[in-house]
Amino acid sequence: MPHPRLSLSALAFAAVLPSLAAAAPSRCERLVAALSSQLADVTCFESADLTTANASTTPLDNSLPGLPAGAFTPRTDRAVLVAAPPRGTPITRAVPGVQLQARFAGDPTGEARFLLRLPDGWNGRLVVAGASSQRSEFNGDFAWSDYVVQKGYAYASQNKGVFNFKLAAVSATPPADPLPCRLNPGSPVWVHFYDDDPGQPFTRWSEVMLDAAAAARRGVRAHYGEPPRYTYAVGTSNGGYQVRRAVELAPHLFDGGVDWEGTFVDAGAPNLLTDLPPAVLNWPDYLASGKSSTSTAYRNFLAAGYPPDLVSGADSLWTHHWASYWELTECQWQKRLDPSYDTYGAGTAGYNYLARLSASDVGAQLAAIATTGRIQRPLVTVAGTMDALLPIDHHARAYARKVAAGLAERGHGEGEEEGRAPDYRLYEVQNGNHIESYADLFPQLQLVLPHAHAAFDLLVAHVEAGAALPADQCVPPGGAIAGAPAQPGHCAALFAP
C-alpha cells in the first residue's frame, strides 16, 4: 500500500524513478560519447578488476573477427618480453574500473587501435604506453599496466597503427609475394608483416603514440570530470623508441617518460640495419666452431657490439636470438626502409647499409624516423648489458650520447617551461637481457622489470616533487638503483660472472 504521508505528486514522481534511472547514461555510454569523434568499433565494459588476474582484461588471441591468425595476438604479446605474475609484476589487489578498447576512426588503414583503463581509485595521473615489436595495444599488460593501475593511474596503450603478421607460406624457397620474411635461415616458415604494407611507414609510430595520448586525456576528462594532472610515457623495445619520440616531440602531452631497452634509430651508424647483418653473417661460422669463444666468428660478434654468448650444453643465448630475432628483424626493417634490396638473393648476411646509402633512399627513410636526443621532458632509460637484440652500446648508450650532444648543441637554457633543460638518466642493469623469460634458461641473467618500475617511481617523484634523479649507474646483480651508486656511469663489462 502507498505510504500514508506521500502526496499524490510524490507518488507520481516515485512512479517514474525507474524509467529515469534506466534513461541515465552509464559510465561507458558517457565515455564512448566523449570519444565518438576519434574512435570506432568501441568495446567498453565495467570491470571488477583491471589487472591481468581478471581473464577479461586481455582478449584472447585471434579474437578480432575477419583477421588471419597472427594479426592480433594480445595474450601472446603481453608475454613476449615479460613473464606473467608472479614472476613478472606482482598483483596484490583487484582494481575495479572501466576498460575501453577500439580503433582510431580516422586511420585510413583501419589497423590503428587504442586501449584505455580507468580505475575507480584514480590518483589523478595518466600513463600512456608504447608498443614493442609489432605487437598489439595489450603488449604492455604484464610489464606496465598491472603495475600502474594498482597504483591508481589511468592507463592507455596503442599498437603503433598496425597489426602484427600473417602466415605467408611454408616453403624452402621464397614465396611469390615479395614482402614475407622467413623466421630464420633454417626455417621454411614465411610471415608477412603488416608493417611492410603500403601505407604503413614507420613514421606512423610516433603519430599513433601522440594520438593515443590525446584520446586518453580526453577520455580521462570525460570519465573523472577533470584532466590528468600528470601524464607519463612508458614503453619497451620499439615502445621505448615511441617514448623517446614522445618526449622529443610533445611536451604539451607528456610530463616525462621511461624507456626500457628502446630502439635507437639514426641515419648514421649504429642502427638495426648496421647491427643485425653481422650477427646473421657470423652465426654459421660460430656454430661450426662448436660455439667456441676463441673463434674468429665469436670475436666478430663482440666487435659488432654484441654481449658474450651464454652457453649451456647444446643451448645458448645467441641460439635463441638466431632462431627468433636476428634475421627476422633485419628483414622486416629492410623490407620497409630499403625495399629495392634483394633480401634473399643478395642475402641478409651481405646487407651493407653504408653501401646502400648511394644505391637507395634508405638513409632518408631512417632520417625521417630518427631519434634526435632533443628531449623536452625528463626521460629515464633502463637497459640490460646483455641485450643481444639491441646491443647496449649501439642503442641505450647511443641514445644517451645523442641526448648529451643535443644538450651541448642547444645549450642548457632550452627545454622545460621553467627554462631548465630536462634531466636524462641511463640506468644499466648488469646482466639484463632484452627478453626477460631467458632468465629462466640462463640463471646468470638479471630481470630488468623491477628496475624499470623503480625508475618510473623515481621519475614521478622527480617530476612532481622535485626529487633528484639518481646519477647514471650500473645496477649490480641483486642490487637496486641507488642514490649513491657504487658503480656510477656505464657497467665496466657487459657480463659479470
TrEMBL record:
Molecular function GO terms recorded: hydroxybutyrate-dimer hydrolase activity
GO cellular component term, pick one: extracellular space
Signal peptide span: 1-23
Alphabetic keyword roster: Hydrolase, Signal
Source species, domain of life: Bacteria
UniProt KW NAD keyword: no
UniProt protein name: Tannase/feruloyl esterase family alpha/beta hydrolase
Species: Anaeromyxobacter diazotrophicus
